[in-house]
Write a structure and sequence with these properties.
Blueprint lengths: L1 E7 L12 H10 L3 E6 L4 E6 L4 H12 L5 E5 H10 L12 E6 L5 H10 L5 E5 L2 E5 L8 H7 L7 E5 H12 L5
Antiparallel strand pairs: 1-3, 1-4, 2-3, 5-7, 5-8, 6-7
Length: 179
Amino acid sequence: MAEHIVLLRGINLGSRNRIAMPKLRTALEAAGLDDIRTYLQSGNVVLSSGTNPADVVRAVIASEFGLDIAVVTRTRAQVAKIVAHNPLASVAKDPKRYQVSFCDAKPSGAVVRLIEETAAPGERVVVHGREIYAWHPDTIARSKLWALLAGQKLGVTATARNWATVQKLLELADAPAPS
């Protein structure tokens, strides 16, 4: 069975879409998924599955928590390639201002141009396959690029994690499963 990193979009933001990670782990185990580990409260799950677990996770969240949450998954091997690729390593020095948006499909050429045009001076962005690497040296909160990447205008489902979280999720996927 492969290790999968499951990224939930838009949960536990203030009082919205609340999901307790211990309850999520229990519900996913009951659905037949294995070796479930969570990281932080922002929808990061590492688990083992013989197939892509996205549909199972969405169904569990809908039935157990009454929420319709977008789910994006990558295998451990795919995340390792994302980390190894790291196209902005030479400029992105603060992992909390360096984001990777994980998309469920490649953005269209028109959307890629929009993303590139939206970046402010100093910001850097690289679209590589289904990932969008974005460096926000000054601020994320007031970045028009970040607002675009976090919004619904990409034409694909996307959810972002900062670089520190991406690296931690790869470490978690490499760690022995809990016994």
